[in-house]
Design goal:
By secondary structure, the protein is an alpha/beta fold. It has helices spanning 25-36, 51-61, 74-79, 91-101, 120-124, 159-169, 183-191, 193-210, 215-233, 240-247, 253-263, 266-288, and strands spanning 18-21, 44-48, 64-67, 84-87, 110-113, 133-137, 147-153, 173-177.
């Protein structure tokens, strides 16, 4: 990846003109994270499909909102003056959206996709030559400001623009710039990862019921335990290996449980599951292409 110099302006980052096309769970989480970091809401334009979403979004966030069913050219109008454009529609609609806004984008405007499985090349084929493109892989904890995002930049994205996008997304969680070839792995670990944690809570709660706990009590204990452990891990210097060992007393109950996980080859199961997720991400990309 060779980052290039662009015409990205030097206006204050909190006044940067942004556009959000689609404000569902992911793009909406990114929007709220950026606002929580102090961005001027009047510098942001968002589009929604229906009028019943307009008032609630405008009231909650203070951003400018255009409604697709009322203004067919809403997406094109939203991007005209924007320097960073976040595409938040479903993956199957990203390429059509690129076709729609292509001729309304400023040449230096950076297009950021928050949709899974959509490659930079797939977007480039539906935008004007040289349009700066960033591919992102976010996850659902962005909605509570505790997400993880993998970013990959196209060749015409300037270092300044990429750094600013990292800063904008950092309001919703941790952000890492990775080669695009690693995006499927990012998807398998952090993109799908929250579901693994939720699945673990389900399994722990069911196990508690089998041990005789009331179902609600067992679920409360499992949920609070995983949430608490996650909060401890939110420290950037947290070492999960050391933390696990600190809880695992020699010859104690936790040691017996960990030994059972090892005997059942839980690490191999996790490796197999994430490999399957990464392979499916690659397959989806091929299908959409």
């Amino acid at each position: 990846m060779g980052l290039m110099t662009s015409e990205f302006s030097s206006v204050a980052s909190t006044e940067r003109k942004l556009a959000f096309l689609g404000t569902g769970s992911m793009n909406g989480a990114v929007l709220r994270g950026i606002l929580s970091s102090g961005h001027n809401p009047q510098a942001i334009t968002a589009t929604v499909r229906s009028a019943n979403r307009e008032e609630s979004l405008r009231t909650e966030t203070g951003v400018n909102v255009l409604v697709g069913e009322q203004t067919p050219e809403a997406n094109r109008l939203a991007v005209q003056d924007a320097e960073i454009v976040f595409l938040g529609v479903k993956p199957v609609g990203i390429q059509d959206l690129c076709d729609e806004i292509r001729d309304s984008l400023a040449p230096h405007a950076v297009v950021v996709s928050v949709a899974a499985a959509i490659t930079i090349a797939m977007m480039a084929g539906h935008l004007n030559p040289g349009q700066p493109i960033v591919r992102s892989m976010p996850n659902t904890p962005l909605m509570v400001g505790a997400g993880a995002v993998g970013l990959s930049a196209g060749e015409t994205v300037s270092e300044a623009a990429l750094a600013e996008i990292v800063g904008l997304l950092s309001g919703s969680g941790v952000v890492h710039v990775v080669p695009e070839s690693q995006q499927n792995a990012v998807s398998a670990i952090s993109g799908s990862g929250p579901a693994y944690a939720f699945y673990l809570v389900e399994a722990m709660a069911n196990a508690g019921v089998e041990l005789g706990l009331d179902p609600k009590l067992s679920m409360d204990l499992a949920r609070a335990t995983i949430a608490g452990a996650g909060k401890m891990l939110s420290d950037p210097n947290a070492d999960p290996v050391a933390m696990r060992k600190a809880v695992t007393s020699p010859h104690g109950t936790t040691e017996r449980a960990i030994a059972t996980f090892d005997a059942e080859e839980l690490p191999k199961i996790m490796a197999k599951a994430t490999a399957a997720a990464a392979a499916r991400a690659a397959q989806i990309s091929a299908e959409l292409a």
